[in-house]
Amino acid sequence: MTDVMNDSSRTKRGGLGVLFVAAFMTITTETLPMGLLPQMGQGLGASESQVGLLVAIYALVVMLVTLPVTAWTANWPRRRLFLVIMAAFAVSNLLMALAPTFPVAIIGRLIAALVHGVLWSMMAAYATQMVAPGRAGRAVATVYAGNSAALSLGVPLGTALGNALSWRAAFVVLAGVAVLVMAAAPALLPQVPGTRSADSSAAKAFRIPGVLAIAVTTTVVMLGHFTLYTYVAPFLQDAGISESAVSPVFFAFGVAGIAGVWCAGMLVDRRPRGALLSAVGIVVLALTGLGAVGWFTPATIALIVLWGLAYAALPTFLQSAALKAAPAAPAAASALFIIGFNLGIGGGSLVGGQVLDHIGVAAVPGAAAALTAVALLIALFARTSAFPRRPTSAVIARPGNEDEPTPAHQLAELSQHH
After folding, report:
1. Which domain holds residue 72?
2. Structure confidence by residue, pLDDT tens digits, 203-255
3. Contact (CB, 8 A) for 267 and 275
4. Residue 406 to residues 63, 133, 298, 387, 411: CA-CA distances in angstroms?
5. Fewest CB atoms within 10 Å of the CB: 71, 203, 212, 223?
Protein backbone atom coordinates (compact mmCIF):
# COMPACT_ATOMS: atom_id res chain seq x y z
CA MET A 1 0.00 0.00 0.00
CA THR A 2 2.84 2.38 0.88
CA ASP A 3 4.50 1.73 -2.49
CA VAL A 4 1.24 2.50 -4.27
CA MET A 5 0.84 5.73 -2.34
CA ASN A 6 4.44 6.72 -3.08
CA ASP A 7 3.93 5.98 -6.77
CA SER A 8 0.77 8.10 -6.74
CA SER A 9 2.59 10.94 -4.99
CA ARG A 10 5.45 10.78 -7.50
CA THR A 11 2.96 10.81 -10.36
CA LYS A 12 1.26 13.90 -8.95
CA ARG A 13 4.58 15.67 -8.54
CA GLY A 14 5.46 14.64 -12.08
CA GLY A 15 2.18 16.06 -13.37
CA LEU A 16 2.79 19.36 -11.61
CA GLY A 17 6.32 19.31 -13.01
CA VAL A 18 4.89 18.93 -16.53
CA LEU A 19 2.69 21.98 -15.98
CA PHE A 20 5.63 23.93 -14.56
CA VAL A 21 7.78 23.19 -17.62
CA ALA A 22 4.87 24.04 -19.91
CA ALA A 23 4.41 27.36 -18.13
CA PHE A 24 8.12 28.12 -18.39
CA MET A 25 8.21 27.21 -22.08
CA THR A 26 5.13 29.24 -23.06
CA ILE A 27 6.17 32.45 -21.31
CA THR A 28 9.71 32.11 -22.66
CA THR A 29 8.25 31.63 -26.14
CA GLU A 30 6.25 34.83 -25.75
CA THR A 31 9.07 37.02 -24.46
CA LEU A 32 12.23 35.58 -26.07
CA PRO A 33 12.37 38.06 -28.99
CA MET A 34 13.04 40.81 -26.43
CA GLY A 35 16.54 39.47 -25.82
CA LEU A 36 17.32 38.77 -29.48
CA LEU A 37 16.05 41.89 -31.25
CA PRO A 38 19.26 42.78 -33.13
CA GLN A 39 19.96 39.21 -34.28
CA MET A 40 16.38 38.53 -35.32
CA GLY A 41 16.17 41.84 -37.14
CA GLN A 42 19.21 40.93 -39.22
CA GLY A 43 17.97 37.41 -39.90
CA LEU A 44 14.47 38.49 -40.94
CA GLY A 45 15.41 41.70 -42.74
CA ALA A 46 13.41 43.80 -40.27
CA SER A 47 14.09 46.72 -37.96
CA GLU A 48 14.31 46.28 -34.19
CA SER A 49 10.96 48.00 -33.70
CA GLN A 50 9.40 45.61 -36.23
CA VAL A 51 10.80 42.62 -34.38
CA GLY A 52 9.31 44.12 -31.23
CA LEU A 53 5.94 43.76 -32.95
CA LEU A 54 6.37 39.98 -32.74
CA VAL A 55 5.88 40.44 -28.99
CA ALA A 56 3.15 43.07 -29.33
CA ILE A 57 1.07 41.11 -31.86
CA TYR A 58 1.39 37.94 -29.79
CA ALA A 59 0.20 39.66 -26.64
CA LEU A 60 -2.67 41.48 -28.33
CA VAL A 61 -3.94 38.26 -29.92
CA VAL A 62 -3.83 36.57 -26.52
CA MET A 63 -5.84 39.43 -25.09
CA LEU A 64 -8.49 39.24 -27.83
CA VAL A 65 -9.02 35.48 -28.13
CA THR A 66 -8.53 34.13 -24.59
CA LEU A 67 -12.15 34.35 -23.43
CA PRO A 68 -13.88 33.13 -26.63
CA VAL A 69 -11.43 30.28 -27.28
CA THR A 70 -11.53 29.27 -23.61
CA ALA A 71 -15.33 29.13 -23.81
CA TRP A 72 -15.17 27.13 -27.08
CA THR A 73 -12.83 24.52 -25.56
CA ALA A 74 -14.44 24.47 -22.10
CA ASN A 75 -15.93 21.00 -22.55
CA TRP A 76 -12.75 19.40 -23.92
CA PRO A 77 -11.03 16.88 -21.63
CA ARG A 78 -8.15 18.71 -20.02
CA ARG A 79 -5.34 16.36 -21.06
CA ARG A 80 -6.42 16.34 -24.69
CA LEU A 81 -6.65 20.14 -24.69
CA PHE A 82 -3.20 20.38 -23.09
CA LEU A 83 -1.67 18.11 -25.76
CA VAL A 84 -3.24 20.15 -28.58
CA ILE A 85 -1.84 23.35 -27.07
CA MET A 86 1.65 21.87 -26.70
CA ALA A 87 1.53 20.71 -30.33
CA ALA A 88 0.63 24.25 -31.38
CA PHE A 89 3.63 25.63 -29.47
CA ALA A 90 5.94 23.06 -31.05
CA VAL A 91 4.76 24.03 -34.54
CA SER A 92 4.92 27.74 -33.71
CA ASN A 93 8.50 27.65 -32.44
CA LEU A 94 9.69 25.42 -35.28
CA LEU A 95 8.14 27.77 -37.83
CA MET A 96 9.85 30.70 -36.10
CA ALA A 97 13.19 28.89 -36.31
CA LEU A 98 12.74 28.26 -40.04
CA ALA A 99 11.08 31.58 -40.96
CA PRO A 100 12.77 33.09 -44.02
CA THR A 101 10.92 36.41 -43.78
CA PHE A 102 9.20 38.62 -41.23
CA PRO A 103 5.62 37.78 -42.40
CA VAL A 104 6.29 34.06 -41.93
CA ALA A 105 7.57 34.80 -38.44
CA ILE A 106 4.32 36.60 -37.66
CA ILE A 107 2.33 33.54 -38.77
CA GLY A 108 4.46 31.37 -36.50
CA ARG A 109 3.77 33.67 -33.56
CA LEU A 110 0.03 33.71 -34.21
CA ILE A 111 -0.20 29.92 -33.92
CA ALA A 112 1.02 30.00 -30.33
CA ALA A 113 -0.82 33.19 -29.43
CA LEU A 114 -4.19 31.64 -30.31
CA VAL A 115 -3.83 28.99 -27.59
CA HIS A 116 -1.62 30.74 -25.02
CA GLY A 117 -4.43 32.26 -22.97
CA VAL A 118 -6.46 29.04 -23.03
CA LEU A 119 -3.57 27.18 -21.44
CA TRP A 120 -3.14 29.73 -18.68
CA SER A 121 -6.87 29.87 -18.02
CA MET A 122 -7.05 26.09 -17.44
CA MET A 123 -3.73 25.26 -15.73
CA ALA A 124 -4.51 26.48 -12.22
CA ALA A 125 -7.75 24.50 -12.02
CA TYR A 126 -6.10 21.49 -13.68
CA ALA A 127 -3.28 21.55 -11.13
CA THR A 128 -5.70 21.49 -8.19
CA GLN A 129 -7.28 18.28 -9.56
CA MET A 130 -3.97 16.46 -9.06
CA VAL A 131 -3.63 17.00 -5.33
CA ALA A 132 -5.56 16.75 -2.08
CA PRO A 133 -7.69 19.79 -1.16
CA GLY A 134 -5.19 20.88 1.48
CA ARG A 135 -2.47 21.21 -1.16
CA ALA A 136 -4.42 23.01 -3.88
CA GLY A 137 -2.77 26.36 -3.17
CA ARG A 138 0.71 24.85 -3.47
CA ALA A 139 -0.29 23.24 -6.76
CA VAL A 140 -1.41 26.59 -8.15
CA ALA A 141 1.84 28.13 -6.94
CA THR A 142 3.79 25.48 -8.87
CA VAL A 143 2.20 26.60 -12.11
CA TYR A 144 2.79 30.30 -11.52
CA ALA A 145 6.35 29.69 -10.41
CA GLY A 146 6.90 28.63 -14.04
CA ASN A 147 5.73 32.09 -15.10
CA SER A 148 8.14 33.84 -12.71
CA ALA A 149 11.02 31.54 -13.67
CA ALA A 150 10.45 32.23 -17.37
CA LEU A 151 10.40 35.99 -16.88
CA SER A 152 13.51 35.86 -14.69
CA LEU A 153 15.58 33.21 -16.51
CA GLY A 154 13.89 32.24 -19.79
CA VAL A 155 14.96 35.30 -21.74
CA PRO A 156 18.52 35.30 -20.33
CA LEU A 157 18.99 31.61 -21.17
CA GLY A 158 17.49 32.07 -24.63
CA THR A 159 19.62 35.14 -25.23
CA ALA A 160 22.77 33.27 -24.22
CA LEU A 161 21.90 30.40 -26.54
CA GLY A 162 21.08 32.82 -29.34
CA ASN A 163 24.41 34.59 -28.94
CA ALA A 164 26.37 31.32 -28.70
CA LEU A 165 24.73 29.62 -31.68
CA SER A 166 21.95 31.60 -33.39
CA TRP A 167 18.55 33.02 -32.55
CA ARG A 168 16.99 30.25 -34.63
CA ALA A 169 18.60 27.61 -32.41
CA ALA A 170 16.86 29.11 -29.38
CA PHE A 171 13.45 28.57 -30.99
CA VAL A 172 14.41 25.02 -32.03
CA VAL A 173 15.15 24.26 -28.37
CA LEU A 174 11.75 25.65 -27.33
CA ALA A 175 10.06 23.48 -29.95
CA GLY A 176 11.95 20.48 -28.56
CA VAL A 177 10.81 21.28 -25.02
CA ALA A 178 7.19 21.37 -26.22
CA VAL A 179 7.63 17.94 -27.82
CA LEU A 180 9.16 16.51 -24.63
CA VAL A 181 6.24 17.86 -22.59
CA MET A 182 3.84 16.19 -25.04
CA ALA A 183 5.69 12.91 -24.59
CA ALA A 184 5.53 13.07 -20.80
CA ALA A 185 1.95 14.33 -20.46
CA PRO A 186 0.00 11.10 -21.20
CA ALA A 187 1.79 9.23 -18.41
CA LEU A 188 1.82 12.03 -15.82
CA LEU A 189 -1.30 14.13 -16.34
CA PRO A 190 -4.73 12.82 -15.27
CA GLN A 191 -7.65 12.76 -17.68
CA VAL A 192 -9.97 15.38 -16.21
CA PRO A 193 -13.28 16.30 -17.86
CA GLY A 194 -13.92 19.79 -19.14
CA THR A 195 -15.98 22.43 -17.39
CA ARG A 196 -18.75 24.80 -18.29
CA SER A 197 -18.15 27.90 -20.43
CA ALA A 198 -16.04 30.58 -18.78
CA ASP A 199 -17.80 33.57 -20.40
CA SER A 200 -20.35 34.24 -17.69
CA SER A 201 -17.95 33.58 -14.81
CA ALA A 202 -15.43 36.04 -16.31
CA ALA A 203 -18.11 38.71 -16.59
CA LYS A 204 -19.13 37.95 -13.02
CA ALA A 205 -15.56 38.19 -11.82
CA PHE A 206 -15.25 41.70 -13.26
CA ARG A 207 -18.16 42.77 -11.04
CA ILE A 208 -16.49 41.50 -7.87
CA PRO A 209 -15.12 44.45 -5.85
CA GLY A 210 -11.43 44.91 -6.42
CA VAL A 211 -11.02 42.70 -9.49
CA LEU A 212 -11.25 45.57 -11.98
CA ALA A 213 -8.70 47.62 -10.03
CA ILE A 214 -6.32 44.66 -9.92
CA ALA A 215 -6.73 44.05 -13.66
CA VAL A 216 -6.06 47.72 -14.46
CA THR A 217 -3.05 47.85 -12.14
CA THR A 218 -1.65 44.68 -13.75
CA THR A 219 -2.15 46.12 -17.23
CA VAL A 220 -0.51 49.47 -16.50
CA VAL A 221 2.45 48.13 -14.53
CA MET A 222 3.20 45.61 -17.30
CA LEU A 223 2.73 48.38 -19.86
CA GLY A 224 5.47 50.37 -18.16
CA HIS A 225 7.77 47.39 -17.66
CA PHE A 226 7.58 46.10 -21.22
CA THR A 227 7.93 49.57 -22.74
CA LEU A 228 11.61 49.26 -21.85
CA TYR A 229 12.09 45.52 -21.41
CA THR A 230 11.06 44.79 -25.00
CA TYR A 231 13.89 47.05 -26.20
CA VAL A 232 16.37 46.56 -23.37
CA ALA A 233 18.93 44.91 -25.68
CA PRO A 234 19.34 47.98 -27.93
CA PHE A 235 19.16 50.22 -24.85
CA LEU A 236 22.04 48.36 -23.22
CA GLN A 237 24.10 48.56 -26.39
CA ASP A 238 23.40 52.28 -26.60
CA ALA A 239 24.57 52.56 -22.99
CA GLY A 240 27.97 51.19 -24.00
CA ILE A 241 27.44 47.51 -23.23
CA SER A 242 28.65 45.27 -26.06
CA GLU A 243 26.38 42.75 -27.77
CA SER A 244 28.31 39.87 -26.19
CA ALA A 245 27.87 41.41 -22.73
CA VAL A 246 24.10 41.83 -23.06
CA SER A 247 23.49 38.19 -22.15
CA PRO A 248 25.39 38.40 -18.81
CA VAL A 249 23.37 41.51 -17.93
CA PHE A 250 20.18 39.57 -18.66
CA PHE A 251 21.46 36.82 -16.36
CA ALA A 252 22.06 39.36 -13.63
CA PHE A 253 18.47 40.54 -14.11
CA GLY A 254 17.31 36.92 -13.83
CA VAL A 255 19.35 36.07 -10.74
CA ALA A 256 18.00 39.18 -9.04
CA GLY A 257 14.55 38.02 -10.12
CA ILE A 258 14.96 34.73 -8.27
CA ALA A 259 15.63 36.71 -5.10
CA GLY A 260 12.60 38.85 -5.89
CA VAL A 261 10.32 35.81 -6.20
CA TRP A 262 11.62 34.47 -2.89
CA CYS A 263 10.95 37.82 -1.19
CA ALA A 264 7.45 37.86 -2.66
CA GLY A 265 6.76 34.45 -1.15
CA MET A 266 7.88 35.73 2.25
CA LEU A 267 5.78 38.91 2.13
CA VAL A 268 2.69 38.17 0.05
CA ASP A 269 0.56 37.20 3.06
CA ARG A 270 2.27 39.17 5.80
CA ARG A 271 2.31 42.61 4.13
CA PRO A 272 0.63 42.26 0.74
CA ARG A 273 -0.16 45.94 0.22
CA GLY A 274 3.10 47.36 1.52
CA ALA A 275 5.17 44.82 -0.38
CA LEU A 276 3.33 45.49 -3.65
CA LEU A 277 3.67 49.27 -3.31
CA SER A 278 7.34 48.92 -2.42
CA ALA A 279 8.03 46.69 -5.44
CA VAL A 280 6.26 49.02 -7.87
CA GLY A 281 7.99 52.03 -6.32
CA ILE A 282 11.41 50.41 -6.72
CA VAL A 283 10.66 49.65 -10.36
CA VAL A 284 9.73 53.32 -10.90
CA LEU A 285 12.98 54.46 -9.27
CA ALA A 286 15.09 51.99 -11.27
CA LEU A 287 13.52 52.97 -14.60
CA THR A 288 13.89 56.66 -13.78
CA GLY A 289 17.52 56.09 -12.90
CA LEU A 290 18.18 54.25 -16.16
CA GLY A 291 16.84 57.25 -18.05
CA ALA A 292 18.99 59.65 -16.03
CA VAL A 293 22.34 57.83 -15.82
CA GLY A 294 22.08 55.29 -18.65
CA TRP A 295 25.35 56.61 -20.04
CA PHE A 296 27.26 55.35 -16.97
CA THR A 297 27.70 51.59 -17.41
CA PRO A 298 28.23 50.54 -13.75
CA ALA A 299 25.13 52.46 -12.67
CA THR A 300 23.15 50.96 -15.55
CA ILE A 301 24.03 47.42 -14.49
CA ALA A 302 23.21 48.13 -10.83
CA LEU A 303 19.83 49.60 -11.78
CA ILE A 304 19.06 46.65 -14.07
CA VAL A 305 19.65 44.30 -11.12
CA LEU A 306 17.43 46.44 -8.85
CA TRP A 307 14.75 46.49 -11.53
CA GLY A 308 14.89 42.69 -11.91
CA LEU A 309 14.66 42.18 -8.14
CA ALA A 310 11.52 44.31 -7.76
CA TYR A 311 9.76 43.35 -10.99
CA ALA A 312 10.01 39.58 -10.46
CA ALA A 313 7.96 39.91 -7.27
CA LEU A 314 5.05 41.64 -8.98
CA PRO A 315 3.34 38.63 -10.69
CA THR A 316 3.10 36.85 -7.32
CA PHE A 317 1.60 39.91 -5.60
CA LEU A 318 -0.84 40.68 -8.41
CA GLN A 319 -1.96 37.08 -9.04
CA SER A 320 -2.40 36.49 -5.32
CA ALA A 321 -4.47 39.68 -5.02
CA ALA A 322 -6.69 38.56 -7.91
CA LEU A 323 -7.31 35.12 -6.40
CA LYS A 324 -8.02 36.59 -2.96
CA ALA A 325 -10.45 39.13 -4.43
CA ALA A 326 -12.35 36.43 -6.37
CA PRO A 327 -12.10 33.19 -4.34
CA ALA A 328 -15.31 31.82 -5.88
CA ALA A 329 -14.08 32.35 -9.45
CA PRO A 330 -10.34 31.55 -9.53
CA ALA A 331 -10.30 30.44 -13.19
CA ALA A 332 -12.04 33.62 -14.31
CA ALA A 333 -9.74 35.75 -12.17
CA SER A 334 -6.74 33.99 -13.74
CA ALA A 335 -8.10 34.63 -17.24
CA LEU A 336 -8.58 38.32 -16.51
CA PHE A 337 -5.09 38.50 -14.98
CA ILE A 338 -3.61 36.94 -18.14
CA ILE A 339 -5.57 39.32 -20.37
CA GLY A 340 -4.37 42.34 -18.40
CA PHE A 341 -0.82 40.99 -18.36
CA ASN A 342 -0.76 40.51 -22.12
CA LEU A 343 -2.44 43.82 -22.82
CA GLY A 344 0.43 45.38 -20.92
CA ILE A 345 3.01 43.35 -22.86
CA GLY A 346 1.52 44.23 -26.24
CA GLY A 347 0.90 47.86 -25.39
CA GLY A 348 4.36 48.24 -23.90
CA SER A 349 5.96 46.81 -27.03
CA LEU A 350 4.04 49.28 -29.17
CA VAL A 351 4.73 52.28 -26.94
CA GLY A 352 8.40 51.43 -26.64
CA GLY A 353 8.68 50.96 -30.39
CA GLN A 354 7.14 54.36 -31.08
CA VAL A 355 9.46 56.09 -28.62
CA LEU A 356 12.43 54.23 -30.08
CA ASP A 357 11.59 55.24 -33.66
CA HIS A 358 10.56 58.86 -33.06
CA ILE A 359 12.62 60.04 -30.09
CA GLY A 360 15.40 57.54 -29.57
CA VAL A 361 16.34 54.65 -27.35
CA ALA A 362 17.60 56.92 -24.56
CA ALA A 363 14.04 58.20 -24.02
CA VAL A 364 12.48 54.76 -23.56
CA PRO A 365 13.27 54.38 -19.81
CA GLY A 366 11.59 57.73 -19.03
CA ALA A 367 8.41 56.67 -20.81
CA ALA A 368 8.46 53.34 -18.99
CA ALA A 369 8.94 55.05 -15.62
CA ALA A 370 6.02 57.43 -16.23
CA LEU A 371 3.66 54.58 -17.04
CA THR A 372 4.76 52.53 -14.04
CA ALA A 373 4.22 55.56 -11.81
CA VAL A 374 0.59 55.63 -12.95
CA ALA A 375 0.23 51.99 -11.83
CA LEU A 376 1.68 52.96 -8.45
CA LEU A 377 -0.95 55.69 -8.07
CA ILE A 378 -3.77 53.26 -8.95
CA ALA A 379 -2.54 50.76 -6.37
CA LEU A 380 -2.22 53.51 -3.76
CA PHE A 381 -5.86 54.49 -4.13
CA ALA A 382 -7.18 50.89 -4.44
CA ARG A 383 -6.75 50.29 -0.72
CA THR A 384 -9.97 48.44 0.12
CA SER A 385 -11.00 45.39 -1.91
CA ALA A 386 -8.08 45.23 -4.34
CA PHE A 387 -4.98 45.82 -2.23
CA PRO A 388 -6.06 45.94 1.43
CA ARG A 389 -3.64 47.05 4.11
CA ARG A 390 -4.16 43.96 6.27
CA PRO A 391 -3.72 40.37 5.04
CA THR A 392 -7.01 38.69 4.22
CA SER A 393 -8.11 35.15 4.96
CA ALA A 394 -9.39 34.65 1.43
CA VAL A 395 -9.55 31.17 0.01
CA ILE A 396 -9.07 29.51 -3.32
CA ALA A 397 -11.93 27.24 -4.21
CA ARG A 398 -10.89 23.88 -5.54
CA PRO A 399 -12.82 23.01 -8.71
CA GLY A 400 -15.56 20.59 -7.88
CA ASN A 401 -14.96 21.06 -4.15
CA GLU A 402 -16.20 24.56 -3.42
CA ASP A 403 -16.95 23.53 0.14
CA GLU A 404 -13.32 22.59 0.73
CA PRO A 405 -11.42 25.82 0.13
CA THR A 406 -7.67 26.13 0.32
CA PRO A 407 -5.94 28.99 2.16
CA ALA A 408 -4.59 31.51 -0.34
CA HIS A 409 -1.37 31.93 1.62
CA GLN A 410 -0.20 28.58 0.26
CA LEU A 411 0.41 30.36 -3.05
CA ALA A 412 3.60 31.68 -1.50
CA GLU A 413 5.02 28.38 -0.34
CA LEU A 414 6.54 27.25 -3.60
CA SER A 415 7.77 30.74 -4.44
CA GLN A 416 9.97 30.53 -1.36
CA HIS A 417 11.81 27.63 -2.99
CA HIS A 418 12.33 29.27 -6.42
Report:
1. 2-415
2. 666 677 778 888 899 999 999 998 998 888 888 888 888 777 777 887 788 78
3. yes
4. 29, 7, 46, 20, 10
5. 203
Instruction: Tell me the Cα Rg of the chain.
Output: 20
C-beta of residue 227 within 8 angstroms of C-beta of residue 122: no
Read off φ and ψ for residue 401, nearest 5 degrees. -140, 55
User: What is the rounded CA–CA span in Å between residue 392 and residue 390?
Assistant: 6
Q: Are strands 401-407 and 395-398 parallel, antiparallel or unpaired?
A: antiparallel
Q: How many domains does the chain have?
A: 1
CB atoms within 10 A of CB 76: 16
Rounded to a whole number of angstroms, the distance between the first and last alpha carbons of the chain is: 32
Question: Positive or negative, the Cα torsion across 87, 41, 347, 35?
Answer: positive
**CATH code for position 85:** 1.20.1250.20
Residue 126 Cα distances to 45, 118, 194, 331, angstroms: 41, 12, 10, 10
Q: What is the pTM of this model?
A: 0.72
